Amino acid sequence: MSHTIADKAPVAVPATRRLSQRRMPRWAPAAIAAAAILLGIGIGLAAGLESRIQWGMIALLLFVAGTYAVTTAVEGRRQAKDRVVTSLVWACFIVAIVPLYSLIATTISKGLKVLDGNFLSHSMGGVITIQPGGGIYHAIIGTVEQVGIATLIATPIGLLTAVYLVEYGKGKLAKAVTFFVDVMTGIPSIVAGLFILTVWVLMLGNGPSGFAGSMALTILMLPVVVRSTEEMLKLVPNELREASLALGVPKWRTILKVVLPTAIGGITTGVMLAVARITGETAPIMLLVFGSQIINNNPFEGGQSSLSYYVFEQFQNGNDASYDRAWAAALVLIAFVMILNMVARGIARWKAPKTGR
């Protein structure tokens, strides 16, 4: 006996197979966070905790626990686990950003006390350390010259080394170069300073100078340039190389006209980041440059100062006027590094491969 479709009874869909389920409203995470903050403050005050950092940590724990409990009750354990992981990511981000914000806020609030045109255009020559006045002009000159010389030395050497490793390097020599570059990446700055001190000052008999500090900074900068340039060259598609070689272009010219222009944005960014890394180094400058209270425009003779050494020197004086100058110099140094990073990002964006038609 045949049955038509109309004779069949409708099949009920089990509740577990339904596609729709209860969802928390979009404002729920913000509400849970607000409640956790209020509870964290209340618990901190009740427990007699004076540190706001402790209040914040309690609030973060309450936020994660509250997110799990509320999401489990509304959406189930599976969604609760997902939201807890997301909450942990945000909590870790907040924990990481709080010290950075505190550092920048403290440096700005303390550094702006004496930071003005006079501070940027005068040196410490003839200034009594316990009295206000003086500036960082001599330290700015020293930093620019020392970092500039190190960049002029490290950039071509690092660039050519990276080209060798990517385009020509094979066998034991390439492995040895890669190994030593990796080792140099982790060398402490004081070790680089001691090496130059032993060779340049003690063995060759040269005195302190900005150039000696630049050589130590070169050692610190070189592996960063090599590694960043190497990674950028590896990102260049092999099809570009093959197309150039197929047209009969020599390999050296292919590298010069095709490979390097394609990767120039990333290479420039790596160089700028390496410059930013060495700008704040103090240990090599203490060993090799010795500092100076007056302006010395000659980096090859006599002591020089730098922004990092100036900060150390002023804090070492141990008086209020020196502390104010140290904070102002630290603010200038942070601004200098931030400008370098912004320039690097701008160049990378400018030179990045264009997408679309």
Shape: flat
- Total helix count? 13
The low-pLDDT segments are 15-19
What is the helical fraction, as a range of percent?
over 70%
How many runs of DSSP E, i.e. beta strands?
0
The biggest beta sheet reads: none
Radius of gyration: 30 Å
SSE succession: HHHHHHHHHHHHH
Strand content is under 5%
Mean pLDDT: 85
**N/C terminus separation:** 65 Å
Structural category is mainly alpha
Describe this structure in words.
The protein is mainly alpha-helical and 357 residues long. 71% of the residues lie in helices and 0% in strands. The protein has 13 helices and no strands. Helix 2 (52-74) packs antiparallel against helix 3, helix 5 runs parallel beside helix 8 (210-234) and helix 7 (189-203) crosses helix 8 (210-234). The longest helix is centred in the first third of the chain and has 35 residues, at 77-111. The protein starts with 27 loop residues before the first helix and ends in a 6-residue tail after the last helix. Residues 15-19 have low confidence and may be disordered.
